[in-house]
Amino acid sequence: MATQTQIPAPDRRVPVIAPGHTFSTITDKISNIVLKRPISLGWIFGFLIVFSMMNVLMMCLGYLFVKGTGIWGINIPIGWGFAIVNFVWWIGIGHAGTLISAILALLRQTWRNSINRFAEAMTLFAVACAGIFPLVHTGRPWLAYWLFPYPNTMNYWPNFRSPLVWDVFAVSTYLTISLVFWFIGLIPDLATLRDRAENPLLQKIYGLFAMGWRGSARHWHRYESAYLLLAGLATPLVLSVHTVVSFDFAVGIVPGWHTTIFPPYFVAGAIYSGFAMVLCLAIPIRSIYGLKDFITERHLETSAKVMLATGLIVAYGYFMEGFMGWYSGSQFDSFLLWNRFHGPYKWCYLGLLASNILIPQVLWLKKFRVSTGWLWLISFVVLVGMWLERFIIVIVSLSRDFVNSSFGMYYPTKWDWMTFAGTIGMFLTFMWLFVRVLPMISVFELRMLLPEAHVHENAAEEVKP
Amino acid sequence: MQIFPRSANAIARASLVLTVVVVGGLLSGLMLLERTPYITNAGIRKAQPVPFSHQHHVTGLGIDCRYCHTSVETSSFAGIPPTKTCMNCHAQIWTNAAYLEPVRESFRSGRSLEWTRVNQLPNFVYFNHSIHINKGVGCNTCHGPIDQMPLVYQYASLQMEFCLDCHRNTEKYIRPREQVFNMRYQPPSNDLMGVHEVAFNGKTYSDQESLGKALHEQYNVRSVKDITSCNTCHR
Amino acid sequence: MSIDENKTKAASAKGPDVCPTKRNQLDLATVKEQIADTTGPEYWRSLEELAGTEEFQEMMHREFPKGASEWLDDFSRRGFLKTMGASLALAGLTGCTRMPDTEIVPYVKQPENVIPGRPKFYATAFTLGGYASPILVESHMFRPTKVEGNPEHPASLGGTDIYAQASILDLYDPDRAKDITYLGDVRSWPAFMEAVKGPMSVETRMAGSGVRILTQGVTSPTLASQIKSYLDANPQAKWHVWEPVNRDNVYEGAKLAFGEAVETRYDFSKADVIVSLDADFLYAGFPGSTRYTRDFAARRNPDGNMNRLYVIESTPSSTGMKADHRWPMRAGEIEGYARTLAAGIGTGFAAGTAGFNNPAGGATKFDKTVATDLSGHRGSSIVIAGDHQPPSVHAIAHAMNQALGNVGQTVFYSEPVDANPVKRGESLNALVDDMRSGKVDLLLILGGNPAYDAPAELDFASALKSNAVETKVYLGTHRNETAELCQWHVPEAHYLESWSDARAYDGTATIIQPLIEPLYGGKTAHEIVTILAGQPGLTGHDLVQQYWQKQHTGADFDAFWRKSLHDGWIEGTQHAPKTVALKSASFSATQSMPASGFELNFRRDPSIYDGRFANNGWLQELPKPLTKLTWDNPIMIGPAMAERLKLNFKDVAELEFNGKKVKGAIWIQAGHPDNSITVFLGYGRTRAGRIGTDTGFDVYPLRTSQAPWFGDGAKLTAVGGIYQLASTQGYQTMETPVGERPLVMERSLEEYKKEPNFAKEEEPAKDLTLYKPQEFPYEKEAYSWGMAIDLNSCVGCNNCIVACQSENNIAVVGKEQTLKGRHMHWLRVDAYYNGPRDNPKGFFQPVPCMQCENAPCELVCPVQATIHSSEGLNDMVYNRCVGTRYCSNNCPYKVRRFNFLLFQDWETPQFKLMRNPDVTIRSRGVMEKCTYCVQRISEHRIDTETASVREGKEIRIGEELQTACQQSCPANAIVFGNLNDPNSQVNKWKALPRNYSMLAELNTRPRTTYLAEIRNPNPELQSGLQSKTEALVPEAELQAERT
Fold it and tell me: Cβ(C427)–Cβ(C241) under 8 Å?
């Protein structure tokens, strides 16, 4: 642990927080974003757009319940379409947040402090979007509760051998833990807002959620241990969720699904897309709300590096698939490979290779890691690429499996597209509200990054017997 | 600035417990509701065009089930007696009883009586009377004390768990075939109330278990795995 | 049966049950009160019926001018009702599942020998073109629900054909005519009799000079004698016959050869070598095909003495695909070929000058070899000519059979089965002339649809429309094109509603008995003719009984009558073989060589025949044997020709013939002869009903009496644009760029003899699974069910598909959904090609659920809705299914089907009567699949076990337990039974060396296995067939490019 004179490690590199900031400046800057009146027109305008997109989703779901899953492009042999593609994509995105806050917290990566809050928020919203699909893609969603084991009059249990049942537990656990984790982290800042808000109503609301936080040493002590505990809980989940999701495919016998490499390669892909989404959001936000001091180039660059690394793991995954297609000697696997390069969906696959492997390689150059414009563009490309990856895995694998007579094609309908766009709308709507009503950067954790913070730390240390 | 009084702490602690209790309560409430007569219709008497009393006809007059439910041994459907069957007797007796008018009317006009179904299974359940009757499942095992019912009602819940309970341990329930239509049948017992024996194949049994085994042998009742296969009831 | 996706125009929107007499105006209030006292689903039904009426639509226009248009379009109207139905269901299901009260309605007086809940079977016959297919009909509480073959009858032996199977749907067709109408207004039966009495009496005074009766092909002895006796009484009256798909050439050919019209029938069980000159004798519609298929298939056993089939054909057919040697040839060249062949076997014919396959003319290696093969099998060979080949070809075939001494061995001649074998074309021609020249006062059209399918040049429709004919009476099941043009339309009774009789291809007579009272008071031809004969009041029953009373010589008529009804055929009515002498040894050639342009072939459609089945959803959606097309008829051409004309699948092209033009979509058919086009009859109906109207395109305008089957000088030009064709099979070759897939195993006879086990893939060890293999100790069970399918016998007749559809209440989804790949057939027949595109080998492979022992579908279902039974069935519990479709994704054979929308028709009351009560009606969002007809298994098990308990001894389910597909298979290609019974047929088959499981390497351990296909090519000609596959255009990729 650093001594009084020595300022902690981060300092040697570009600081994670621009110089010249004090506790108060940080607090003002961030809490003002929330408490400032009046609300900017830009915010309202944007909100109207994303909110109407969210309503498109509601409309789609309504029509879906009335008509049935037939409104989508799915058929036999392609029983899973956009619904599952989107599900996996969103779940993937929902990884970065918890990874950043939990794992990096355990690894004492202090730079995370300035991005973990909205990364976590993003996680929640993404998982919420993902959560919709497994439910509504079923033919009879009103019976979905049969997937839960409960003492029913049928004396009949769900099939615990089925990955879909594992999904139910994996995803719901992940959602709960992330939610609690996020909320616990919010409490001190909610208290700050409560104290700074002028409007009595706001005071009440923030106060309610602050749950009587007083910031006493005892509170802080409890808080730390709770936070650490949850971090410990969340860490395995980050890995488990997408592992379980990958089982949905790996357990199946469909060529292109039935491979042992799926769990690691899915997790890597998830983090890949997660960080891409973080950057896609962080870059505009920091410039709009003038947070360049707190979300510095260093953050962007580090995230870029993470993307590069995970991207390479994903690339390895693709390579292994190809290799296995040849090495297994199974004609179905080798046909799968042929089909990806020459089949009717070859453009999707080539696009996937370009956007997930080729293009991100430029991140080797610092120039691209630090230029926000480029970085945003690349992150966006990666998001598209990862969506394509799921499209390839789910749809292209199913379109041509074992029996030639049953080869088929998948043509997404307008309802497919609208539902997808709808979830994006829902995601953004939540984001929009979040940046407006909650501190998008953890105030108190940011304070920790200031040299002053460490005085306290050491002081606290001295108290110890 | 605080909005919570000190006392809030107590509430906070209590809420930890309360949440569990309330949520648990609601769920188990649902589970129970599923099994109430409100859902299952068990024990509910329904209005019928004619107040036909099984008690009177079975206990009082000792008419055999099969006199009216003719196809119970040979078909999936036990059979509801045609008006003719009623008139066999009621052409002579109770010929001007007011409450039998619907029967006579139906016989005159040739328009059927419309009874309200009492024991009802969902459309996706394919129950077959003949096999149960022939393998020694008594009428009152499912229909209850039908001979005591002035106005007939559904005795059992007839939910899947009810069926499975028997299909999973048949030997507890089956009886000699000659006892199937015997409403007064008592399974063999040997307890404080004394010994009650049941004769079968010249042997007498004083406990259901051994009787059940013997009957299994005799009627070659299929294994539990067989009769709990889905296609036993669902097609 | 869901029709919501079908293009349905005003024709059906007008609704079948409009009562045009009282056209009072509706307003919302009346609508409300009309539907006030109905609730729930019924509510929506009555609303729909209402929506059908014109008053309602007028009202809609008044009340909501905007919404009206939607309501006129049938799709959205039903869509709306479905929506409501669905939301109702949702509301019901979200709460707890409480069941509403329902009624039990017992008999007042219960009929004798009726046991509620048990089906009964009655013997009767279905007729097509007059020829009877003998059947047994299953009846649940007097509702006919399923057609099965009559095992006792020589013409069926248990098999049926697709038309007989699907006829049950016609009975319940909601579009059937429901009232006697005069100029569209409803009239009563007595009123009708009154109306025709007048003209009748006049006619009788004039010896019936103005009376014309137009029937379809008639084999009914009773009807024939009725009409004849009337004609005797009124010598001036005339009886005309018209069938668009007729056998004129057969009878004419016989006249040419023997000087008299005789029926030719064949015995394929004795034939070692068969040469088919364009005869598709293995497919429904060819008289006797059911029996022929049975005999032919029996001789395909490579372990017995296997027959050899040469097919020379102008349109690829399922018969051709079964051939050991197939020769695609333009129809016009076949006569030349026949002559050469005849010359080759020494019938004193001059070798055809025909340049059929060698411009030089004369013989080639191919026909030399065939000739030698035939000559080598005197008395045990068959030369059979197709119905659409000209009389001379038939005559030549007769000559060859004579020369080969086959007559009396494998070929038999007898009286014509048809009661009035006049030449259809001429007969109709004469009628039209009389009509035009005003000679006809009273025209009775008994069935058929001449206004739609008469030869183009006659323009029957206009002749009928004109007022030249005073009284026009039409007897028909539907208010179709012809009915529209007649003043009187009498709804015809369906054969399951009527008394009659008919003869099978061999003359054996069957008494047709009704299973149900006419649903809409339909009448039969018999009853119409009684009015003519002035003996009204006589029922069909009386007439048929009287007729046979006259025929019956023996003592006890009642016994004879009851026996005949029970057996479904009358003893000793088979036509005795008759000896005829060949007139001359040479016949003048009828066909000239192609002049200019392409040859155009007209063929009956494999699914809807001549158009009479156009409104039958099962047949419309039945994939045609080779193309797997549904709901449409293509313009079929060969690959080479397509390349030259730069035409691709689905391109819209214009076809010109005899100066007439029609537009249609192109289908490139492997093995189609070059410079030749084939089109199919029966589509483009304008008044077929809500299913058949406006499907495909009508080719009758091109068809004349001069060229009823084929002619030269057709022009084909692309007009640009795409027309979507709904094919149910994506990819028609087993070849992939990385090698051929082991789906259908095939070898030649020699190869098989050398290596009998060629088909066996080595299967992974039984315990190579994550899940305890001993989880299912099937050996210990009393029963474990299995199926074996003999690919050698299967002729791809599609019968099993329709039988399955009928037995298991399978929905029809319509063209749009089929295009999306959502057809519901539990059992499909895959067709694959292998070899050169211009003349490939064809394979048929029926694929039901494999009932895998290690079923991949089972372990992925989250709610255990699909799970194994103790007897090895892969059960599918519809009511447990939540519809994740994971099972289907994980099924390597893709045999599972999903209700993506509400495909079942829950509204139409007729269909409620039709459905099999033993099978759950699947609703929206539920997966479904083949279960080996588990309802039949349960029924049999319960019966045998009850019996065994009662008789105190063990009884086993025997061979009488048959699945629907197995029962109806005319080729005996499917065997199902108990694997734990060492003597069961299925075990015998599975013990054969050529038994193999599809995709065995996946370790799914399918219970359904296949017997590999063995061909018996002529060693002389081996080289001809052994060439590598050129990949055919894969449909899937095509779609990718096109849409």
Answer: yes
Q: What is the per-residue pLDDT across C271-317, written as a single tens digit (0 to 9) for each?
A: 999 999 999 999 998 999 999 999 999 999 999 889 999 999 999 99
Chains with 3 or more CB pairs under 8 A to chain B: A, C
Q: Which of A154, A208, A212 sits opposite B160 (nearest CB)?
A: A154
**Taking Cα atoms as reference points, which of C477, C620, C479, C451 lies closest to residue C12?**
C479
CB C1014 within 8 A of CB C304: no
Residue with tokens 């099969």: B66
> Which one of B1, B27, B34 has the shortest CB-CB distance to A153?
B34
Residue C867 has its nearest CB partner, among B38, B84, B230, at B230
Give the integer Cα–Cα distance in Å for A431 and A294: 19
* In contact, A434 and C763? CB cutoff 8 Å: no
Which residue type occupies C225? S
Contacts of A214 in chain B (CB under 8 A): 2
Return the DSSP state at C732.
-
> In chain A, which residues have their Cβ closer than 8 Å to the Cβ of C864?
156-159
β-pairing verdict for C726-727 and C660-668: unpaired
A80 touches chain C (CB under 8 A): yes
Q: What is the Cα–Cα distance from C508 to C909, expressed in whole angstroms? A: 37
Q: Answer yes or no: are the C-beta atoms of C504 and C510 closer than 8 Å.
A: yes
Helix axes C331-344, C391-403, angle to 10 degrees: 20
Tens of pLDDT, residue by residue over B198-226, are 888 888 888 888 999 999 888 889 889 88
Q: Taking residues C965-984, report their average pLDDT.
A: 92
Given this model, what pLDDT does residue C5 score? 36
* Any C CB within 8 A of B206 CB: no
User: Do B3 and A207 lie within an 8 Å CB cutoff?
Assistant: yes
Element (H or E) spanning C137, and its range?
A: strand C131-140
The answer for A 168-227 residues in CB contact with B (under 8 A) is 194-195, 203-204, 207-208, 211-212, 214
Q: Does residue C889 belong to the interface with chain A, where contact is any CB pair within 8 Å?
A: yes
Please state, in angstroms and rounded to a whole number, the distance separating the CA atoms of residues C927 and A139: 9
Distance CA C39, CA C967 (A): 42
The DSSP call for residue C633 is -
Distance in angstroms (rounded) separating the CA atoms of residues B46 and B24: 35
CB C318 within 8 A of CB C797: yes
Rg (CA), chain C: 29
**Using CB atoms, which residue from B8, B34, B159 is nearest to A212?**
B8
Q: Please identify every stretch of chain A with a pLDDT value under 50, giving residue numbers as ranges.
A: 1-11, 456-465
Q: CB contact, 8 Å: A232 with chain C? A: no
Residue B72 with chain C: CB contacts under 8 Å? none
Indicate the residue of B113, B131, B230 with minimum beta-carbon distance to C875. B230
pTM of the shown model: 0.88
Q: From CA A53, how far away is CA A430, in angstroms rounded? A: 12
Beta carbons within 8 Å of C768's beta carbon, 6+ residues apart: C1003
What does the domain layout of chain A look like in residue ranges?
23-147+178-449
- DSSP H helical segments within C299-390, as ranges? 318-322, 331-344, 365-375
Is the separation of the CB atoms in A310 and A268 below 8 Å? yes
What is the structure's pLDDT at B155? 92
**Helical pair C221-233 and C540-551, crossing angle rounded to 10 deg:** 90
Q: Chain A contact for B4, CB < 8 A?
A: yes
Tokens at C403, concatenated: 């020369």
Please state the length of chain C.
1043
b/e B105-125 (16+ beta carbons within 10 angstroms → b): ebbeeeebbebeebbbeeebe
**Residue A389 near residue A273, CB atoms below 8 Å:** no
Residues C863-874: tens digit of each pLDDT: 999 999 988 899
Residues in chain B: 235
Residue of C nearest to A247 (CA): C860
